[in-house]
Amino acid sequence: MGTTSEKNWEPKIVAFLCNWCSYAGADLAGVSRFQYPPNIRIIRLPCSGRVSANMILDALRSGADGVLVSGCHPGDCHYISGNLFARRRFALLNNLLEFVGIEPGRVNFSWVSASEGEQFAEVVKEVTDKVKKLGPSTRLVKRIG
Amino acid sequence: MSTVNEKITEKIRSEAQRLLSSGEIAAFIGYEAGSLPMSVRPFVARKPEDASRLVWNSFCVLNLANYLPALLKSFEPPRRPGDPPPEGPLPKVGILATGCWSRNIVVQIKENQVDRDRVVIVGVPSRGMVSARKVKEAVGERDIQACTEEDHSLKISGEGFEQELNRWDVVRDNCKTCVHPDPVIYDILIGDPAGERQVQDRFAQVDEIEHKSLEERWDWFADSFSSCVRCYACRNACPLCYCPTCFVDDSRPQWVGKSTEQTDTMLFHILRAYHCAGRCTDCGSCESVCPVGIPMRLLTKKLNKDVLEMYGSEAGMSLDEPLPLTTYNPADPQGFVLTEKSEKGGDR
Amino acid sequence: MKALKLDRNAIGQWLSAMAGERDIYVPAPDGPAKGTWTLLTDYSMPEIKPGVPARPVKNFLFPQPETLLKFSTVPTDPNCCLPSEPEENGRKNVVFGVRPCDARSIGLNALACKADTYYQANMEKNAIIGLTCSQVCSTCFCSETGGSPMGTEGCDVSLTEIDGSYIARAMTERGEALLALAESSGKEVTDSDISAVEALEEKARAGSDEIRNPEEQLRAKDLMELYNAPFWQELADRCINCGACTFLCPTCYCFDIQDETLHGKGRRIRCQDSCMFPLFTLHASGHNPRGQKIQRVRNRFMHKMKYFPDRFGPISCVGCGRCVRDCPVNIDIREVMRSLLHI
Ligand code: SF4
Ligand code: SF4
Ligand code: SF4
Ligand code: SF4
Ligand code: SF4
Predict the structure, then answer these.
(1) What is the pLDDT of residues A125-142, one digit of tens each?
(2) Looking at beta carbons, which residues of chain C come within 8 Å of A142?
(3) For residue A2, what pLDDT is reported?
(4) A143 touching B (Cβ < 8 Å)
(5) Cα–Cα distance between C182 and C187 in angstroms, integer?
(6) Which residue of C has its CA nearest to B230?
(7) In sequence order, what are the residues at sequence separation of 6 or more whose Cβ sits closer than 8 angstroms to the Cβ of residue A112?
(8) Cα(A38)–Cα(B45) distance, rounded to whole angstroms?
(9) Looking at residue B342, what is its pLDDT?
(10) What is the C-alpha to C-alpha distance for residues B59 and C247, in angstroms, rounded to an integer?
(11) Which of A142, B81, C106, C160 stands the most exposed, by the fewest C-beta atoms within 10 Å?
């Protein structure tokens, strides 16, 4: 997103977090002062089941270098099974994107609970490292003039 | 001696004629002869005498289930959103259904687009439909002026040439790898059941792409989808696409731009295919109607493969089974989830 | 006007001479882009198949998309929201091997696009080198729409193949200038060359097509009678309302204008649109005057066969047969035209 000079490039990562677990996990990471890279831009959603492929691809289209989707662990969904339905959809999307040549690691999925502040920080580190290795995103990016 | 298709044509006509004249159905969705060699046209017979126009041959490539929800609706009294459903029995519609088309009707029934009680399904076991594109290639893209079909061969002719082709050689790729040629639901069956087919490597076309490197896959996607004109024939020929407003027409947010720029074309194709996940029957309607020959069916075929491998399910095989994306299993594979990788090791 | 006889070698030399001034486009003979107009890089006579290529020549006149203007959406930018001209690469094109039907479409569309400065500029930018047809394909019906397989309308230079060589005739001043670049490699035409071309023209005129000047007959008909004809329902029954016919049609010129904005930058583009799509006429209120399929199907044909001739004279169809060939459900405009003529 925006222009980035080659040298100081820092990836921009869009994180879709479910309200009940992962967003709370992110909050806890902050409150507990676990350090994690500042590259993520959080979008809070009620449930990982609300995350559609449209949203993930829209993030890529808008120039996000990486995407993280995170929800409650299976079995812990606030809406009982939203993440279990979502899991099937994510698995298929993940494979389809790889099939058409989107680099593995651009789009990532995780389960992080409200009490896993430290794990959240680790996930963000892992994703940021991966995306940094991949470099700026070029595929499925919309360019205007 | 009449050919298999001529015999089927006869039976289709007599069934349609019977159903229409007895008043059991208000309309019958079939095919009639077209104006070009190798062309047929979907045709809605509304009067008993229309039945004699119906035909059946190897070029019936557009999935007729595509017309079913709208045709049923056309016989309902108009109502606004929120109005109660109409009372009393509504007119029925007859429709031809091969294996894949019947599975699409199952999907439509399960998704509440079609009322099982309002359709009379005339099943026709499929011998595989022919790809007109393959035929054109086989005759060196020359102008085809006539085509006659025998059970196992096609005679193609044009100015200064006549060529006989083995029918199976030009059958569509999806039909060649089809394992369920017989209708899964029907009220009347025409012709002899073909039986389940044994196909080795049903997903060979998908495997071939999967085996490419990441860069090669991207190049494949970029090249082979580059000449898409965004006409949406693939979408509109698909019986799964019935959303009143398609995601491509959303404007706030606009998920995909309207022009044929690479990103927008690619996003259209990824999302169109993805919307068919767990629902696609590989009927090949989309691929057959594309005016420029885009292999978009391979995307849905990839999804079909994954759905089968991960969830053991194929779309529309039975009215009792839930569609794979409307259900889940607590033990579904999740090796792709970052936080699960360590425990599950090499899980996909 | 100038005319030259060019053998295949001479065509190659001519192409490389023109390439110094302009980008040359030809239909790709094969590969995934088959039938799409692609930049010629090997300057020899390209392989051009009989009949029309998949994509019409209108793609040069209505580029997909065409940026009309640009703007910034950054509030602190002093030029925020003020339109600016898009930058141009300044190159002009030669579109080579255009069939007579396609070439004729440029002038037909221009009737409706008289005040369209973008269309006019694109006409200016693209020189058309036509190639007359030695074979009339089964979907071709140019002669029934006022054209001819030997037509030259819309061409700057028209090529006719005779015994493996090409008779190149300049049809416009621009064509004259282009053909001058072939002077060194080509030969003067002889009287027998000219009479060979004339013989082909005569043969094309004598073609057995039963319909002549449909526009006159159609203009004479009552609009409402055509509009209320009984056969529209049957077409609507099978039409899937895709855009295959309109996007591939050289004479469908409807477009959509979109503002695309992202990260502080914006541009106004136009891209081709299709009257077969429900969105085409959807009002902001939610009302859609052509909300039903039958209305949309009817519109495409009524526009071409009645509204357009009433307003501009000719029918808006050059008989290229693309819609006949590519319609997924075999809606055949030749039949529609006949049905309308019989009303
Ligand atoms: S996506 Fe294509 S193959 Fe699948 S059901 Fe739709 S038309 Fe048939
Ligand atoms: S893939 Fe083919 S049918 Fe689908 S929109 Fe593109 S050109 Fe049309
Ligand atoms: S329609 Fe006429 S001009 Fe066009 S390709 Fe066919 S014969 Fe040639
Ligand atoms: S190509 Fe055929 S089916 Fe598609 S909109 Fe045109 S007439 Fe209808
Ligand atoms: S209406 Fe059909 S035949 Fe006529 S110009 Fe358009 S595509 Fe060609």
Answers:
(1) 999 999 999 999 999 999
(2) 260, 262
(3) 46
(4) yes
(5) 9
(6) C243
(7) A21, A22, A25, A26, A70, A71, A73, A119, A120, A123, B339
(8) 64
(9) 54
(10) 24
(11) B81
State the average pLDDT for chain B.
95
Q: According to the model, what pLDDT value does residue B235 have? A: 98
pLDDT the model gives residue B347 = 42
By C-alpha distance, the chain A residue nearest B217 is A101
Q: Is residue A98 part of a domain?
A: yes
Of all protein residues, the one whose alpha carbon is nearest to atom 4 of ligand 4 is C242
Kindly state the percentage of chain B with pLDDT values over 90: 91
How far apart CA B212 and CA B218 sit, in angstroms, is 9
Cβ neighbours, 10 Å, residue C190: 11
> What pLDDT band is residue A86 in, cutting at 50, 70 and 90?
very high
Could you tell me the strand order of the sheet in which B188-189 lies? B40-45, B27-33, B93-97, B119-123, B188-189
Q: Are the C-beta atoms of residues C70 and C83 closer than 8 Å to each other?
A: yes
Span from the CA of B187 to the centroid of ligand 1 (angstroms): 23
**Range with the poorest average pLDDT among B68-82, B292-306, C124-138, C308-322:** B68-82
- DSSP E strands in C142-195: the ranges are 157-162, 165-170, 187-188
> What is the spatial order of strands in the sheet that A40-45 belongs to?
A40-45, A13-18, A66-71, A107-111
**Ligand lying nearest the CA atom of residue C244:** 4
Contacts 24+ apart (CB under 8 A), B149-157: B149/B3, B149/B5, B149/B57, B149/B58, B150/B3, B151/B3, B151/B4, B151/B5, B154/B58, B154/B130, B156/B37
Chain B contact for A139, CB < 8 A? yes
Q: What is the CATH number of the domain that holds A49?
A: 3.40.50
Shortest CA distance from B277: residue in chain A: A92
- Closest-CA residue, ligand 2 atom 8, reads B231
* Chain B residues in contact with A108 (beta carbon < 8 A): 338
Name subunits touching C (3+ CB pairs < 8 A): A, B
Number of domains composing chain A: 1
With a cut of 90, say whether residue B78 has pLDDT above it: no
Q: How far apart are CA C287 and CA C258, in angstroms?
A: 20
Distance, in Å, from the CA atom of B107 to the CA atom of B68, rounded to the nearest integer, reads 12
Domain interval for residue A46:
13-134
- Residue A141 counted as domain residue: no
Residues of chain C with pLDDT under 50: none
**Distance (Å, whole) CA C340 – CA C226:** 6
pTM for the model? 0.95
pLDDT of residue C210: 73
Q: Please say if the pLDDT value at position B341 is more than 90.
A: no
Residue A57 covered by a domain: yes
**pLDDT, position B109:** 98
Ligand 3 within 6 A of CB of C10:
no
DSSP C314-326: S-S-----HHHHH
